[in-house]
Records
---
Amino acid sequence: MSNKARVVVLISGSGSNLQALIDGVQSGELPINLAAVISNRPDVFGLERATKANIPTELLDHKTFTDRESFDRALMEKIDSYQPDLVVLAGFMRILTPEFTQHYLGRMLNIHPSLLPKFQGLHTHQRAIDAGESHHGVTVHFVTAELDGGPAVVQARVPVLANDDASILAKRVQRQEHVIYPLAVKWFAQGDLHMIDGKSVLKGEPLPASGFLISSDEP
Ligand code: GRF
């Protein structure tokens, strides 16, 4: 147990990506120790998922802080009390201060529902449909000071179909999220994935700008 990578997961909502990590641990596929789950919002379903899996939970409500800097500092203290090797942002809906991103540089991952660098920010599924994209998808990337801008680790591509609305497309993308996030976390935990000179490096080889690419034509 103690030689497994310690992972702290930050959430703000439903926690389906957290669940994919929990499932990976429980099936023996994912050799990590889920040290804690921290939410910035009370009463979210992700906290229930963590409790059910016997993972320590913490709530740090951003609304009780006067500014972003003091919240991020308190969050860092909380995270560091669990001595994580990796911090995983799983639907954590906060803009992070440069001090925070610098502190975890090379040891913090995020998942963003688009084929980055396309569609940074919010409402990505609707924006992909409105732009007439033939494909859309999801990216796991290292977190840097640039919002949704750090080096990509892995991307999954899915088709955009004629009758898609944002929620149908989001579901198609989410199925891939639950595949690629555990994969990226596993690479990191096994010591195969690093961020070196601002690039993602997998098993000693720099990854292309899109990261490792997975395609799914599954509707
Ligand atoms: C996911 O769509 C993820 O890509 C985005 O936020 C959502 C989180 O969903 N960053 P969940 O809380 O993991 O279900």
---
Amino acid sequence: MKIEAFAPGKVILFGEHSVVHKRPAIAVAINKGVDVLLTTRDDNIIKVEVPSINYSQESELINKRLDFELDSQNKMITDYIYEVINLFEFEQGFNLNVDIRMYLGAGLGSSAAVTVSCMKALSILAGVEMNKKTIAKQARNIEIKIQGAASPIDTSMSTYGGIIYIDENFELERIKFDMDLQLIVSNCQISGNTGKLVESVRQKYVKYPEIVENIFNAMQEIAKNAKDALENGNSELIGDLMNLNQGLLDSIGVNTVELSDMVYLSRKYGAKGSKLTGSGGGGCIIAFCPENIDTIYEELSKKYATFKCEQSDEGVYAKIIEN
Ligand code: PMV
């Protein structure tokens, strides 16, 4: 049996960090993500391959299960894969090839895309029916187990695709937006550590509760206004709100010199709005470029790894290509 699966990554347009403290956020699934190819074997060996990090490992199935202990120190991308494998029982071994077609550890949701695509493919092989709601929930549980804290953003985007508004109760609402968003992503190629950054924001909240509460409230207003701006196609407002959000993210300490450089460079060449995306501390910015997209792309590309980012309306999917 051969199964193929794909799950998209995401960019957060509004509300990273404040979402962890129950404020709304908006994210967009992107056309870069993770492809999985699962091929059954005649023995009881499970071979996991992740070519982009030169990883290849064989392990033995014992009583239909893999004996995997999470090493909480390292938080490797492969931990997510083994946690997914551990959800199921298997009658036979398999080769699992995980092709990560996106930047790793850069705020684009690579770990969620790995978790969700593997879960979809492996659930089919194990004969376990999993709808999207179950996949998103189980995938988030794995993120929480490995990372400590995680909002449902990344795993929801990889599962459902599209542009999604997550409200303060973590309920998801699809935003209707028919145009191409004209986004550029630039990566400073320094990785931020999501767990540590989330913790540093929490500590600021404990130290300056009133101030940080007000910052989160402002982020909440931005996300709410942004939902309307997107639905009404109001580019001017979308851009302004992104810039406001960037200033607030800077104020809670998750911005860096490199991120600022990319933000100001994109604005200099005509981006209507630009901000860091994801946990910050490195990683990527997104620039909203309804005009001048080619010039902004060229200028950012001179200094940083950059791509024009199309949205992915589809979430995770799988197909059996050989039975
Ligand atoms: O850097 P990423 O892609 O893992 O995004 C993290 C977003 C945060 O809001 C900072 C954390 C979360 O779990 O929502």
